[in-house]
Amino acid sequence: MSETIKAYGTEAAKADLKSMEIERRAPEADDVKIEITYCGVCHSDIHTARNEWGGTKYPVVPGHEIIGKVVEVGKNVSHFKVGDHVGVGCMVDSCQECESCKRDLEQFCENGATFTYNSPNPHIPGTQTYGGYATSIVVDQQFVLHVPENIYKPGAAPLLCAGITTWSPLKHWNVKKGDKVGVVGLGGLGHMGVKFAHALGAQTVMITRSPEKANDAKDLGADAVLISTDKDTMKAHAGSFDFILNTIPVGHDMNPYLSLLKIDATMCLVGAVEPLKPFHGGNIIMGRKRIAGSLIGGIKETQEMLDFCGEHDILSDIEMIDMQNVNEAYDRVVSSDVKYRFVIDMESLKK
Q1: Tens digit of pLDDT for each residue in 295-331?
Q2: pLDDT 10s digits, 209-265
């Protein structure tokens, strides 16, 4: 039987999030039921709640950076037990049969991955999935992740989206010790990119328009800071980067960053899911340079990222909030007034 639980969501694009009740399915043989203890606030939550990307089905319950404890497992579940600390990221299902799924790239499922919220719910036809702004969630065991015991659980929540979004391209393009890596933009994604690139042994350069972010970037692990509006310094660094991770979340001019790449080097976009400004073709033709993109990561890769964080004590820098303050937090995210990720203490939802 399904269960009615407490959640926080919105019923319209211009309405605040508020307390509501939703239905969760009963755990089936392959399912894990999780009591949610912490949930990160991602800018994607805001885009969806406010229907800024279109396609939002209301009511919507956001949240895909979920940390919790296992409270029940189905009879076929062998890798999790009651009491385990676990995570759930941006996906809760996929077809498991297409070429992408067989390659552990469930995020690119050719039949459409089931995302943690606002996706058609295959278990309850005619409904959509509800996310982590809730007291509990039921997820197929293949989409549940082990969270290392030694890491601070609230700081682990954003790893399920901001973490894997930046880890995946660094690994795919084989960033390694000695490489010169630029991270453009110091926000929720950028601060994780700096931490990961540094931990992988790269010469890590924070690229920003804001000189006041220099000290923060160095505290996070950046070896140097490059001010992108300083033409002389940009010229001095031209043609010297092996890889650039571009986390800017809005349309922008890519030309200054393309000039920084070496021959055959890549700039990967992970932030701007919208039209970009035109760039000069010569900036990639003269040097056989590449512009690429990347979307989160598969479940296997996400587990590898979490294990790496456990080994290297890497966490997101967070500000903890109560569920009742999420509308204020949304406004602060939009105005870049957070270092660097909000995490909701889900105990507050029970009040």
Answers
A1: 999 999 999 999 999 999 999 999 999 999 999 999 9
A2: 988 889 999 999 999 999 999 999 999 999 999 999 999 988 999 999 999 999 999
Report the SS3 class of residue 222. Answer: coil
Q: Taking the complete model, does pTM exceed 0.90, yes or no? A: yes
What are residue 214's phi and psi, to 5 degrees?
Answer: -60, -50
- Which numeric CATH code is attached to 163-293? 3.40.50.720
Q: Which of 288, 293, 257 lies closest to 182, judged by CA? A: 257
- The residues near 92 (Cβ < 8 Å, ≥ 6 apart) are 114, 115, 116, 119, 129, 137, 139, 140, 143
Q: How far is CA 320 from the centre of its chain?
A: 17
Look at residue 210 in the predicted model and tell me its pLDDT.
87
Confirm if 267 and 258 have CB atoms less than 8 A apart: yes
Q: Where are the domains of the chain?
A: 3-161+316-350, 163-293
Which two structure tokens, joined as six digits, stand for 97? 């049969």
Backbone phi, psi, residue 247, to 5°:
-105, 10
Tell whether domain 3-161+316-350 is in CATH 1.10.1370.30.
no
Which stretches in the chain have pLDDT values below 50?
A: none
